[in-house]
Amino acid sequence: MKQIINNTDIEEIDFRKIDLNLLTVFAALMRENNVTRAAKRLGLSQSAVSSALGRLRALYDDPLLTRTQAGMKPTARAVTLYPRILAALDAIGQTFDTGTPDPDHAFPPLLRLGLSDDYELAFGPALAKAFRHHAPKSRLVFHQVNSRLAAKALVDGQVDLTLTGGGLTGSQVKRLALGRSDYACLIDPASRSEQHSVSLEEYLARPHILVSYDGLTGAVDDVLQERKLKRTIALSTSHYGALSYLLAGTGAIATIPRHVAKAIAGQTGLAMIACPLSLSDYSVDLGWHFASARASGILRARDLFAGIVSDGLTA
């Protein structure tokens, strides 16, 4: 059997002796790195997936995936096979593509979008509304992921798509640039008479609320350091959604991405004002695992979400 797999002459391969369903199991195991999750994805029992893995090992004469404390780790042979098997499954799937998907099955029954809460606050309502309209029988899950963890979340199969501010790299992921965002400030308008701008002097004099995953510094501090300036960070939080409560009734100021500043100001009594510092803008990207190229439902959701976010960034 090993000689059959390694033989490049397709006419000499006896496909009657090969269960092609094993390839689907292999792809799920590589995506999930876990027998239980792969079984759930495939709608099979755990014992059936374990049995299929045993047959795959015999077929390729290789362990393919070995158990570790962190999950199933693919062998070098499995890593080499993975893109080839995905391409084979894609080719087979395309033979059944009529070009007119059933509206009830055009999207996956469960779609997981990885994003940080600034994008969830700014675009979540529009994304959810559009998804309900186009996929009324499907469920959308917003999964908290920041730009540093987005690629890993895609590769590990934790999410189907990601929405991040750049930082998406890796040979197994692809990205689509949707537009660019920059920064603005939020304040309680009751703390000053002029609500449209703030001088650099006043900006530095005010206490600052920082939104950061590590709670220490942000993009503002890097720019201030270059100019030999410093601000006073009175409070740090990891959630943009907390700002409406933390800023209200105070003289503090928060410098955050413009898209979420606009969303929060539109739903609260806070005022969005221009930042007196020149801060670099950045790309907003939609990412997906390269294996999703054969998952038409995920790609339809990608295209749907891309249009909504792109329009929102330019509004």
From TrEMBL:
UniProt xrefs under Gene3D superfamilies: Periplasmic binding protein-like II, Winged helix-like DNA-binding domain superfamily/Winged helix DNA-binding domain
Assigned protein family: Belongs to the LysR transcriptional regulatory family.
InterPro entries cross-referenced by the UniProt entry: LysR-type_TF, LysR_HTH_N, LysR_subst-bd, WH-like_DNA-bd_sf, WH_DNA-bd_sf
Signal sequence interval, chain numbering: none
Cross-referenced SUPFAM superfamilies: Periplasmic binding protein-like II, Winged helix' DNA-binding domain
Stretches assigned to the HTH lysR-type domain: 18-75
Molecular-function GO terms, alphabetical: DNA binding; DNA-binding transcription factor activity
UniProt-recorded name of the protein: LysR family transcriptional regulator
Database matches in Pfam families: HTH_1 (PF00126), LysR_substrate (PF03466)
Keyword NADP belongs to the record: no
Keyword Transcription regulation among record annotations: yes
UniProt keyword terms in alphabetical order: DNA-binding, Transcription, Transcription regulation
